[in-house]
């Protein structure tokens, strides 16, 4: 009997806690949106528009209607709110021709209703709506004065490529070797467009010098090769940004180093003594090299050219994705020729495409016993070297001679640092 009473009390407490949480979230969202509307109302010297009390009551009303679980009450409360909101808009149309407050009121009711059962989503949407309606002046200035028609066109093109075209493509190989995936190839195209747009936005926001450095480092976490190609093309289009572009391209390799160290630790920490020193040394070379060019870019120079042109060039991104698919085919053919015994060579060739996947594969092969720890580390070192060479090739193809001559010495220095460290640690006894 006591056990049943205890279980009943636990159910009651849990049920009450969930109701209290829902009502608290609804109250907080109503207050948050209402405070913004109250301030807006005060600035307009109007006492008739909905304010903090109205929004708080409407949010709580939505939560209470949800708790009643009555379709009739949902219809009555929702319909009544729509009717009263329409009357309010008609009465204040001359002074406030916009519909922001009215739609915010309806959204507050919906969020209060959603708070019963989906508390986290309701809270997040409440904050998001508050941010949107409180950023009216900034959004208006950005849309009217700062955003050009070409930039809006490019943003729409990027959204269409990512949200419309990409989901429609088959997510399976279409070639006899089973390596060319249309969705993967288009994902690289979208990635290339996004990296270009990231660099363009960073340059406009932070300035030509700092913007490329930030864009390079952030883009390196996605793909250092694509980042170098994207930044190289910008440097080729605007030679005045050459030093900043070299710094950003060098910083992209720092992101690669961080990811490699994390992958090694997670997949097989036994490889860390053999790969960690060399990979870390590569990161130090990239950091110092990029910092030198970033400082040089801030030195005496002619006035920076204003940011111009498009945020990205779709044709260039598509060509790069096609080149990626071609490299996949070559790697697959070589893998078939080498056979299962060529595991090390296969991993090294994988570095031509993705050094992270190649390193993770080496670590998994070492964990399963297919490869020893030292042979796996050696194969990963080959893959990292191959990937660094591909970075240099991307710099030559995308950035031209001037960009490549300034950036490729960093790649050479990283390769030298990697192999010097390998020769120093290769004889360490395996754990």
Short description:
It contains 16 helices and no strands. With 431 residues, it is mainly alpha-helical.
Gross morphology: elongated
Give the strand tally: 0
The share of residues in extended strands comes to: under 5%
CA-based gyration radius: 29 Å
Determine the N-to-C terminus distance: 58 Å
What proportion of the residues is helical, as a percent range? over 70%
- The helix count comes to 16
Runs in which pLDDT lies below 50 for 5 or more consecutive residues are: 8-16, 300-307
Please tell me the overall pLDDT. 76
Give the biggest beta sheet: none
- Strand-pairing-aware structural class: mainly alpha
Domain tally: 2
Order of SSEs, N→C? HHHHHHHHHHHHHHHH
Question: Key features?
Answer:
2 domains, 431 residues, mainly alpha, 16 helices
Structural write-up:
This protein is mostly helical and 431 residues long. The protein folds into 2 domains: 2-142, no CATH class; 153-425, no CATH class. The chain contains 16 helices and no strands. 39% of the residues are buried.
Annotate the secondary structure layout.
Blueprint: H1 2-43, H2 52-68, H3 71-92, H4 100-114, H5 119-134, H6 136-146, H7 149-168, H8 182-206, H9 208-220, H10 224-237, H11 242-267, H12 272-297, H13 314-338, H14 343-350, H15 355-368, H16 373-425
């Amino acid at each position: 009997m006591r056990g049943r009473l205890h279980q009943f009390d636990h159910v009651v407490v849990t049920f009450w806690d969930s109701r209290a949480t829902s009502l608290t979230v609804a109250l907080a969202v109503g207050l948050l949106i209402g405070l913004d509307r109250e301030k807006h109302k005060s600035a307009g010297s109007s006492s008739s528009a909905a304010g903090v009390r109205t929004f708080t009551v409407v949010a709580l009303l939505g939560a209470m209607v949800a708790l009643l679980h009555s379709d009739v009450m949902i219809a009555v409360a929702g319909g009544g709110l729509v009717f009263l909101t329409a009357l309010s808009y008609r009465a204040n149309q001359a002074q406030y021709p916009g519909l922001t407050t009215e739609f915010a009121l309806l959204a507050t009711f919906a969020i209060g209703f959603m708070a019963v059962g989906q508390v986290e989503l309701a809270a997040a949407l409440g904050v998001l709506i508050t941010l949107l309606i409180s950023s009216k002046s900034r959004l208006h200035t950005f849309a009217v004065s700062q955003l050009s028609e070409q930039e809006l066109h490019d943003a729409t093109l990027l959204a269409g490529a990512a949200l419309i075209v990409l989901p429609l493509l088959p997510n399976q190989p279409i070639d006899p070797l089973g390596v060319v995936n249309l969705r993967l190839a288009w994902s690289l195209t979208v990635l290339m467009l996004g990296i270009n747009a990231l660099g363009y936005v960073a340059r406009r926001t932070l300035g030509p010098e700092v913007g490329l450095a930030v864009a390079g480092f952030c883009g390196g976490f996605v793909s250092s090769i694509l980042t170098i190609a994207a930044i190289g093309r910008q440097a080729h289009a605007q030679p005045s940004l050459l030093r900043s572009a070299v710094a950003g391209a060098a910083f992209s390799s720092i992101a690669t180093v961080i990811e490699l160290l994390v992958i090694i630790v997670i997949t097989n920490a036994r490889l860390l003594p053999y790969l960690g020193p060399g990979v870390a040394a590569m990161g130090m070379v990239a950091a110092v090299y990029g910092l030198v060019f970033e400082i040089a870019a801030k030195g005496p120079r002619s006035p920076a050219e204003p940011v111009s042109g498009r945020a990205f060039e779709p044709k260039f991104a598509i060509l790069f994705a096609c080149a990626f698919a071609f490299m996949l085919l070559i790697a697959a053919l070589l893998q078939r020729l080498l056979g299962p015994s060529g595991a090390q060579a296969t991993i090294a060739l994988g570095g031509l495409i993705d050094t992270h996947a190649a390193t993770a594969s080496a670590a998994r092969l070492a964990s399963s016993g297919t490869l020893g720890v030292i042979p796996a580390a050696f194969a990963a070192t080959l893959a990292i070297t191959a990937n660094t060479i591909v970075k240099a090739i991307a710099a030559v193809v995308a950035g031209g001679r001037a960009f490549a001559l300034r950036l490729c010495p960093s790649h050479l220095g990283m390769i030298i640092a990697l192999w010097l460290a390998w020769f120093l640690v290769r004889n360490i006894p395996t754990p």
